[in-house]
């Protein structure tokens, strides 16, 4: 026996019946429609959000709304989590939200808004503050300006490939790319902490440009002679230390004193990439006494102090320029030129290329230079003493 629907009263009856028991309608010989069982969606728990279908020509008609705030009267207020093309996608997004709820308003903040909030949080002052800024503040604001294509983008919607496109720009120096990468790391760490983003996209990007592509002017033989002639002038010793060690300015300036071994006469440190980090460079005999004099545990840095107090990188650069003028060097130089000078001195001394790469922390040109050639500290000491 099967069930059918009475066409008169829509009641459910047996297909063997002659008349409908509900209304008396004659059933024999009629066309019958099988009963339709209406399925109702399971009701969601209170406070778990809702999916609303918006009538009209919407590309994404299914809107997900969640209750995250309470108004002045004590009633819940909904926030729009997003709009989706179908109910299945909307249901998945709502389920993901309920597993780990967050403030949807935060997920709508732009890259520029997050930068402002992070800067205020880190430095306890707004970006446009008239207060004196340190070197790191200048570096971060300069890096932010180079990311102008991201300023109006919602940060939670930015993808790793967009960050990588900025780090692949050929018009930016390696130093600037470093500042930008550091800014990404800082901002995403902040954004994760305050649930502005759900993942750290900065973990998946890197700087591909070869190091030391920025322009630089090595010191000439005559200029080096002037530096040695005036080695007792304040901060000339630091210039010579850089020229005879090859370190980048902050690789040595921020190197913990514990990594400067006066007994074994070595520096150990490095930044940039895996070929630069944790490399050991012998201290040249010509600068050993200068390193020994500047080495003072009461200061945080071998370089960033004036003998009485710690100084900033910006202040050091002022002293650097003043020292060159005192020596009679009129060509404009930057601390990075010292690194170019060391590389030039090694090259003119016919130093083996692999050894030069090890000292300078360069990547190398082929697999043998990158991986298979291992030089001892003493071999490197013999090499660096050639300059």
Q: Decide which structural class fits the backbone.
A: alpha+beta
Termini separation = 105 Å
Tally of extended strands? 8
CATH class of the largest domain: Mainly Alpha
**CATH homologous superfamily designation of the largest domain:** Intergrase catalytic core
CATH topology heading of the largest domain: hpI Integrase, Chain A
Strand order of the largest sheet: 3-4-5
Q: What is the rounded Rg?
A: 35 Å
The fraction of residues assigned to DSSP E strands is 5-15%
**How many independent structural domains?**
4
The helix content is 25-40%
Question: Could you tell me the mean pLDDT?
Answer: 83
Unreliable stretches covering 5 or more consecutive residues = 365-373
**Which architecture of the largest domain per CATH?**
Orthogonal Bundle
What coarse outline follows from CA principal-axis ratios? elongated
Q: How many strands, what sense, and barrel or not for the largest sheet?
A: 3 strands, antiparallel
Helix count equals 14
What report would you give on this structure?
It is built from 14 helices and 8 strands. It folds into 4 domains: 1-39; 50-104, no CATH class; 108-204, Tyrosine recombinase, N-terminal domain (DNA polymerase, domain 1); 221-384, hpI Integrase, Chain A (Orthogonal Bundle), CATH 1.10.443. The strands form 3 sheets. The protein has a 3-stranded antiparallel beta sheet with strand order 3-4-5, with helices on one face. It has a 3-stranded antiparallel beta sheet with strand order 6-7-8. Strands 1-2 form a two-stranded antiparallel ribbon. The longest helix is centred in the middle third of the chain and has 20 residues, at 174-193. Strand 4 (62-70) and strand 5 (76-84) form a beta hairpin. The termini are far apart. It is α+β, with helices and mostly antiparallel strands and 387 residues long.
């Amino acid at each position: 026996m099967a069930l059918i629907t009475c066409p008169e009263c829509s009641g459910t009856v047996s297909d063997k019946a002659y008349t409908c028991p509900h209304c008396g309608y004659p059933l024999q010989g009629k066309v019958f429609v099988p009963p339709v069982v209406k399925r109702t969606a399971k009701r969601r728990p209170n406070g778990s959000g809702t999916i609303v279908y918006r009538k009209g020509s919407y590309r994404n008609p299914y809107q997900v709304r969640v209750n995250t705030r309470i108004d002045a009267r004590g009633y819940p207020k909904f926030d729009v989590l997003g709009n989706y093309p179908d109910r299945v996608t909307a249901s998945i997004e709502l389920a993901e939200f309920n597993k780990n709820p967050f403030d949807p308003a935060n997920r709508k903040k732009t890259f520029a808004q997050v930068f402002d909030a992070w800067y205020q949080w880190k430095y306890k002052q707004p970006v446009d503050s008239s207060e004196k800024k340190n070197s790191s503040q200048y570096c971060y604001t300069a890096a932010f300006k180079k990311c102008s294509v991201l300023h109006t983008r919602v940060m939670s919607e930015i993808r790793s490939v967009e960050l990588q496109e900025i780090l692949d720009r050929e018009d930016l120096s390696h130093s600037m790319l470093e500042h930008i990468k550091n800014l990404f790391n800082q901002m995403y760490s902040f954004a994760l902490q305050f649930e502005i983003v759900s993942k750290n996209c900065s973990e998946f990007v890197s700087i591909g440009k070869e190091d030391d592509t920025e322009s630089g002017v090595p010191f000439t033989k005559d200029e080096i002679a002037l530096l040695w002639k005036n080695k007792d002038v304040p901060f000339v010793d630091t210039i010579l230390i850089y020229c005879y060690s090859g370190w980048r300015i902050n690789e040595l300036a921020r190197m913990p004193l514990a990594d400067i071994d006066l007994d074994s006469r070595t520096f150990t440190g490095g930044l940039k990439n895996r070929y630069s980090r944790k490399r050991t460079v012998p201290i040249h005999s010509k600068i050993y006494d200068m390193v020994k004099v500047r080495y003072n545990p009461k200061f945080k840095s071998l370089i960033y102090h004036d003998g009485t107090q710690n100084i900033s990188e910006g202040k050091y650069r002022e002293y650097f320029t003043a020292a060159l003028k005192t020596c009679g060097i009129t060509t404009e130089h930057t601390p990075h030129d010292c690194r170019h000078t060391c590389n030039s001195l090694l090259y003119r001394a016919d130093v083996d290329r692999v050894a030069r790469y090890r000292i300078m922390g360069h990547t190398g040109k082929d697999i043998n230079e990158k991986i298979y050639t291992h030089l001892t500290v003493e071999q490197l000491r013999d090499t660096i003493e050639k300059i």
